[in-house]
Write a structure and sequence with these properties.
This protein is of the alpha/beta class and about 675 residues long. It contains 26 helices and seven strands. Helix 13 packs antiparallel against helix 14, helix 22 packs parallel to helix 24 and helix 24 runs parallel beside helix 26.
Length: about 675
């Protein structure tokens, strides 16, 4: 396949501003630009250097150029039929994202936003992405269509790794005309590497079969069992309904013949023959029974014809699915690939046993018999782990080459989620060591979500310290928490009209972690449900004290597990400090919570003290008089302090006290 040249990038750079300009005058773009007050000229200037859009335009132009070369025509410098698709699928969404990112939330001291359904959607149903640096980096990685290898997706719990993988599965992350063929599997907490690769192998086979059979269908790998059961139930219901119709018609026809026979006092066969003659002989008058017989016979014929019609249509659809519409060019390999996938899927799922044999018998004079029997049984033995790896690599490489040549997808993506849920780091390393043999297939990219511990391991490469992550992954993509602007973009889609004070409060209380941000936004609406448009100070007080109550219970449980005599004193001081309604008094009382002991209890008490200082500082910053003047730097510091509390409570506590002195807050001692 021809590869794009440098000229393709030059043409793409020349075409992109025109695409953005035309899209900016479409009604959807005009509406969102009017709402945010962004000029179309600013949009053209901002998106003309967008690397993701540029890659998509380049891919479309490359496809047009290849098609013209195959057809023997001069290379085309435009986009042709790809232009409208690019505007709808790429440029218009980019304009909406840019305009929303420029929207500045209004300053309003009361809570009056109306939530959308997206806010309450489960994490597994929410695939709408905020275009962060990690998303843009992953799009650039996907644009390298020929590269294989494996990418580690790292980040703390709730950072959005699973959402990013689901967006890949749904086809939302792509820079080419067709999204990559994506398979997502969850790593088990207790695993067997051989069984997991077999599971991944079966998922890939099903996905390939589904793509060849129905390339425009639903992106799920297999049909939902509930949907399959529903279809079977409908088929059974239609069969029962048809049988009931036939039974009623036959009963009516039989009753007509029987009634006529009783009235005429003739036999049933003779009556049926006479009714038939009345219908077919034109010179005979038809009786009432003959009219009824004609009606029932006609209904019976219609039911039978309808049944045959439905059966014929179903058979025709099955034949169309079995026989590909085109067997020319690259499409000629698709049926072969499908048969290969079906064969491999059967081999993965079943242990096949073949039995062959023969027997013979010869009769001798005098009634004797001489016989011989020979039987051979051959059972296919389960594949070993190296054989499974080799079979997987061979199938994945062949599938990627055939599907790309046929224009069905640009590449294969195999995503492994929830590896960070394997509790022990050494077990996670062992898992990666056992499966990394399937990495490195040309045209197949592996994306694996890993834990935070993998980040430091990967970054130590080149310092004579190597581990499983360093040797398995070619790139490490880190999902950082949201910035203040990204939090505003996330909330704007789920709580439109939320004022900037409340956006800042949600960012501080969630630390910028997407999962915590959703919980915080929902809790903000719940705790304020009994007040009409409460002010920022009231909402902050309710959210902080609700969070504080949960943390006190957690700190108390952790302290009791230490079995120290001073636990009672710690719990008493903690509850008294948290009971202060004045934030300055709470901050001062937090000093008494720290127990100067050694071991786990000192760490727990130190974390509790630092958390109390954070709560007091948050309440004072978001006081009614100060909330409108909260600066982005203050918001970023409080969000970062919440994240740093779990790493080093002493550093976080010192930073908080120093920050309070800088702001001149009461209670700094």
């Amino acid at each position: 396949m021809d590869q794009p040249t440098t000229d393709d990038w030059a043409v793409a750079r020349a075409l992109l501003p025109g695409l953005v300009r035309r899209a900016a005058h479409r009604p959807p773009a005009v509406q969102v630009l009017g709402e945010t007050g962004v000029s179309p000229v600013d949009v053209v200037e901002a998106l003309s250097d967008d690397a993701v859009l540029l890659a998509k335009v380049r891919a479309a132009h490359d496809a047009v150029r290849r098609n013209s070369v195959k057809a023997g025509a001069p290379p085309v410098q435009g986009l042709g039929e790809h232009e409208e698709r690019l505007i709808i699928t790429a440029v218009l969404p980019a304009i909406r994202r840019y305009a929303r990112a420029q929207r500045v939330p209004l300053a309003c001291g009361t809570l009056g936003a109306t939530p959308t359904a997206e806010l309450y959607a489960d994490d597994g149903d929410d695939t709408s992405l905020v275009e962060t640096d990690a998303v843009r980096t992953l799009l650039r990685i996907l644009s390298r269509s020929d590269a294989g290898g494996a990418v580690a997706l790292a980040g703390r719990r709730g950072a959005g790794k699973s959402t990013l993988l689901r967006a890949l599965l749904g086809g939302e992350l792509t820079v080419s005309e067709r999204p990559p063929l994506t398979v997502v599997a969850s790593a088990p907490a207790r695993y067997d590497a051989r069984d997991f690769i077999l599971h991944l192998y079966a998922l890939l086979c099903r996905k390939v079969i589904h793509e060849i059979d129905d390339p425009s269908g639903h992106p799920d790998t297999v049909v939902d069992p509930y949907v399959r059961t529903e279809r079977a139930q409908r088929r059974r219901a239609r069969t029962r309904w048809w049988a009931l119709h036939i039974g009623v018609i036959l009963t009516g026809l039989a009753a007509t013949v029987l009634t006529t026979a009783l009235v005429a006092r003739t036999s049933v066969p003779a009556t049926a023959l006479d009714l038939a003659k009345q219908v077919w002989e034109a010179n005979r008058a038809m009786s009432v029974g003959a009219y009824f017989a004609v009606v029932f016979a006609g209904l019976l014929a219609l039911e039978v014809l309808g049944f045959l019609w439905r059966g014929g249509c179903g058979l025709l659809r099955a034949v169309r699915r079995a026989v590909p519409p085109s067997l020319t060019g690259a499409d000629r390999d698709l049926p072969v690939l499908r048969a290969y996938a079906v064969d491999q899927l059967d081999r993965v799922r079943f242990l096949q046993t073949h039995t062959t044999g023969w027997s013979g018998k010869i009769s001798t004079p005098g009634g004797g018999e001489v016989g011989r029997t020979k039987q051979a049984q051959r059972a296919e033995q389960p594949l070993t782990h190296p054989e499974i790896v080799e079979e997987f690599r061979r199938f994945a490489g062949r599938a990627a080459a055939v599907l790309r040549a046929a224009g069905r997808c640009d590449r294969l993506v195999v995503a492994i989620d929830e590896l960070d849920k394997i509790g022990q780091p050494e077990k996670a390393h062992e898992f990666v060591n056992d499966i990394k043999g399937i990495f490195g297939v040309p045209g197949c990219l592996f994306v694996v979500s890993v834990s935070d511990e993998a980040i430091s391991s990967f970054e130590r490469r080149g310092i004579a310290v190597r581990d499983a992550f360093d040797s398995a992954f070619s790139e490490m993509l880190v999902l950082e928490p949201f910035t203040h602007a990204e939090t505003a973009q996330w909330l704007e889609r789920r709580l439109p009209g939320l004022s900037r004070e409340f956006v800042a409060l949600c960012h501080c209380l969630s630390g910028g972690v997407p999962r915590e941000l959703r919980r915080c936004a929902i809790e903000m609406l719940d705790v304020s449900a009994d007040r009409y448009q409460p002010d920022i100070a009231e909402v902050a007080r309710r959210l902080v004290h609700a969070d504080l109550a949960r943390k006190i219970a957690a700190f108390t449980d952790a302290a009791r597990a230490t079995e120290r005599d001073s636990v009672f004193l710690f719990v008493k001081e903690l509850e008294e400090a948290a009971a202060h309604q004045d934030p300055a008094a709470m901050a001062e009382a937090s000093r008494e919570v720290v127990l100067r002991s050694s071991g786990e209890l000192e760490r727990v008490s130190g974390q509790a003290s630092a958390f109390l200082v954070l709560c007091a500082t948050t309440l004072q910053v978001f006081d009614t008089d100060n909330a409108a003047a909260v600066e982005p730097g203050q918001v970023a510091f409080l969000a970062g302090a919440r994240r740093r509390l779990g790493l080093d409570w002493q550093v976080a506590s010192d930073e908080l006290w120093q920050y309070r002195k800088t702001l001149g807050l009461p209670g700094t001692g």
